[in-house]
User: Which sequence fits this backbone?
């Protein structure tokens, strides 16, 4: 089968998918083996989808060692809808929710939660352009908070938590949209984890939510006062099939989970991710021509952000890189500069190609 020429895709999401996954989708798109219909055509009440969902869930549980006391939900509305759902389901009247404000997406989560109830910002690095993760000694938690919310990887600013904050018995909620399954995750230290699929897990359209049973129970108490589609309790009761789920996205996510298991699981992919990021950061630090924007200790292994001396030079860098087949390197419009997103499926030879380009660019413009 002829393969169309592929370039290196450094986009922040939707992002590059594993080649074997794309090939399987292509091969089976007209008719799923043994089914005779496309994944795009099957009923969401079919046995086929039932087994695809069950397999995806089983693979997620195996990958991240998720105990039976957590439900796995496939929702829609992106991580952005979770900003609202988390607060609507878990933050009661008279309660306070704690948020760590370490990036632009954390700030958006806070904004949405404030529309629902009382929010306390535990610590913020906004005044430092979110260049680092707050230190534990800077964090002041509310006694008896409804939950503590963090963003495990700050996609825009290129920082990532190395250690989870110690929240004691309080429910830890984490937006892991941009580093889900890029490294082992200790699910037992979390009460709820959510992530849009379109970076590390699949195409856009499905949002993975892993929620502990006691939070589902908490959400059950609010069920009658929430829009049905925004209730975790409803989603859990119906096995994510209250209405038509994003069938294709769940199918593709399932294939990515199978691919991850075949890579050796999360510890194995973490080693690859560390190698890719270390290669890129070493180049950024080599001469001072490039400047990393994130504090060294908090650098993300997923989104590598860096700048050049002038915006003019940055424009040139992005344009020349694009012309050589290195796509998606323009930083988020809110912060400028450059960003290389190197998620699980991003190939190591693509990182090598970027390093070669960076050296060449420096020779010509340094
Ligand atoms: N949180 C983080 C950390 C993100 O990176 C993004 C998307 N870039 C979002 C939330 C919003 O995700 P979505 O577009 O799926 O709503």
Assistant:
């Amino acid at each position: 089968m002829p393969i169309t020429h592929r370039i290196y895709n450094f986009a922040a999401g939707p992002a590059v998918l594993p080649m074997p996954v794309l090939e399987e989708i292509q091969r089976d798109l007209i008719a799923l083996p043994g089914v005779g219909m496309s994944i795009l055509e099957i009923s969401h009440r079919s046995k086929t989808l039932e087994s695809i969902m069950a397999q995806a869930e089983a693979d997620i549980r195996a990958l991240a060692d998720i105990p039976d006391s957590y439900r796995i939900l496939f929702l829609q509305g992106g991580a952005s809808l979770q900003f609202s759902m988390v607060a609507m389901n878990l933050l009661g009247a008279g309660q306070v929710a704690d948020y760590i404000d370490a990036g632009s997406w954390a700030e958006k989560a806070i904004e949405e939660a404030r529309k629902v109830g009382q929010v306390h910002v535990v610590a913020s690095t906004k005044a430092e352009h979110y260049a680092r993760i707050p230190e534990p000694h800077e964090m002041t938690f509310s006694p008896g908070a409804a939950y503590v919310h963090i963003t495990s990887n700050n996609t825009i600013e290129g920082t990532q938590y190395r250690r989870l904050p110690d929240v004691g018995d309080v429910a830890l909620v984490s937006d892991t949209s941009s580093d889900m399954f890029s490294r082992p995750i200790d699910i037992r230290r979390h009460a709820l984890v959510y992530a849009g699929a379109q970076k590390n897990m699949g195409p856009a359209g499905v949002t993975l939510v892993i929620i502990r049973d006691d939070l589902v129970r908490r959400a059950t108490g609010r069920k009658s006062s929430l829009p049905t589609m925004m209730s975790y309790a409803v989603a859990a009761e119906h096995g994510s099939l209250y209405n038509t789920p994003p069938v294709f996205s769940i199918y593709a996510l399932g294939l990515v989970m199978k691919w991850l298991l075949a890579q050796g699981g999360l510890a194995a992919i973490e080693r690859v991710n560390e190698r890719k990021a270390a290669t890129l950061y070493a180049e950024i630090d080599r001469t001072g021509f490039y400047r990393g924007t994130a504090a060294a200790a908090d650098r993300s292994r997923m989104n590598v952000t860096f700048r050049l001396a002038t915006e003019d030079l940055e424009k040139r860098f992005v344009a020349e890189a694009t012309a050589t087949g290195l796509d998606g390197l323009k930083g988020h419009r809110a912060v400028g500069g450059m960003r290389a997103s190197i998620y699980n499926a991003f190939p190591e030879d693509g990182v090598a190609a970027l390093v070669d380009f960076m050296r060449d660019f420096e020779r010509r413009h340094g």
Remarks:
- Residues 264-365 form a domain with the Aspartate Aminotransferase, domain 1 fold (CATH 3.90.1150.10).
- The longest helix spans residues 266-285.
- Residues 13, 78-80, 105, 151, 155, 175, 177-178, 196 surround 4'-deoxy-4'-aminopyridoxal-5'-phosphate (CB under 6 Å).
